[in-house]
């Protein structure tokens, strides 16, 4: 019953996480009925981000800059490295406010079934970075899910062969939970209680 | 902590109904981490819809065509007119499957506080259309909210002066509810039980 362009808008909104047919329809009509300005801004922001956002040449987080703001920050201790799955995890740990080292962002976890191996996670780049920055301590803060633990184990084996301290973020983080939803205090405790691997 | 373009994407996603800061962040990272194709499609669909979707020259529903598919359909009875608030309401009534007339879409309701008066709802256009199509019966199916009832009352007074049958969709529709969320059967009953005003 909707015209082709409205149908296409509804369909394409379905790519957003948690958006089903009914909310996609509601969103499309809302934007067209009374939020042209917001929709215009969203279309431009999407296009811009798609065209320009890539990965930090150092930590591989998402950014349109060649190096992200944390990697550019001279005050941060480059010899301590926290390894996380996603940019949202960086934000979560930063909000805990107790870690002053740098990050490495895997943008995923090992998942052979989805074709995600060490190469897709940039683990060769990680090893080079560890050597280049003379990293002394690596804290692995992948999620406490099955895949996150497997990824942790794989990375730990790689890094321990380099004679650096490798630790796992403490399980103050609830098992099965996703890092980005844990509160700052729990994360601060989890960082403090890390165990050598 | 996010780069400017990612921040801007997160901010601009907030214009979507029901999307708070946390889901906007989740959506933005999801799109950039693993849904480039969907994001690209969404950016284009938004841009296209914004550039091209306007209003049907006849019923004023949202469409990029000069006349919408219902108004173009010769099989539909132009002498019977159902007046609704939004395009979603047209879809809801069509799904009931018992109405074979045409629609007039207000795209809102009278709301002096928001500066929405008879002109914004196209009520002059409605009167012309009623005359032009020699409408014999108008069914007012605005929402059963305070604003919807006030809008109904205003339109009914205008149309009754033209010597046509003006009715209100029956209140099988739950009071205070929004039309687009009512099931087809209830809507079919509500249409059948309409009362002359
Ligand atoms: Zn970086
Ligand atoms: Zn039309």
TrEMBL record, chains A, B:
Start and end residues, zinc fingers (C4-type): 56-71
* This protein's record includes keyword Nucleotidyltransferase: no
Q: Name one GO molecular function term.
A: zinc ion binding
Does the keyword section mention DNA repair? yes
- SMART domains xref list: TOPRIM
Query: Which residue range or ranges hold the Toprim domain?
Result: 79-174
One Pfam family assigned to this protein is RecR_HhH
Q: Which UniProt keywords apply?
A: DNA damage, DNA recombination, DNA repair, Metal-binding, Zinc, Zinc-finger
Q: Which GO biological process categories is it annotated with?
A: DNA recombination; DNA repair
Functionally, this protein is described as follows: May play a role in DNA repair. It seems to be involved in an RecBC-independent recombinational process of DNA repair. It may act with RecF and RecO.
Q: Which HAMAP family match?
A: RecR
Family, similarity comment: Belongs to the RecR family.
The name on file for this protein is: Recombination protein RecR
Origin species, per record, is Marinomonas spartinae
Q: Quick one: which gene encodes this?
A: recR
């Amino acid at each position: 019953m909707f015209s082709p362009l409205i149908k296409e808008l509804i369909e394409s909104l379905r790519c957003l996480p948690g958006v089903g047919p009914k909310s996609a329809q509601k969103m499309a009509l809302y934007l067209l009925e009374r939020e042209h300005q917001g929709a215009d801004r969203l279309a431009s922001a999407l296009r811009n981000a798609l065209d320009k956002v890539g990965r930090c040449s150092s930590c591989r987080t998402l950014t349109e800059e060649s190096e992200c703001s944390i990697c550019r920050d001279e005050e941060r201790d480059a010899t301590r490295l926290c390894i996380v799955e996603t940019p949202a995890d960086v934000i979560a740990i930063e909000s805990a406010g107790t870690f002053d080292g740098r990050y490495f962002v895997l943008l995923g976890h090992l998942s052979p079934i989805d074709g995600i191996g060490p190469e897709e996670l940039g683990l060769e780049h990680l090893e080079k970075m560890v050597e280049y920055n003379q990293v002394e301590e690596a804290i692995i803060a992948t999620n406490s899910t099955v895949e996150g633990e497997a990824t942790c184990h794989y990375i730990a084996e790689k890094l321990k062969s380099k004679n650096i301290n490798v630790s796992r973020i403490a399980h103050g983080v609830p098992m099965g939970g996703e890092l980005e939803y844990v509160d700052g205090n729990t994360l601060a405790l989890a960082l403090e209680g890390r165990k050598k691997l």
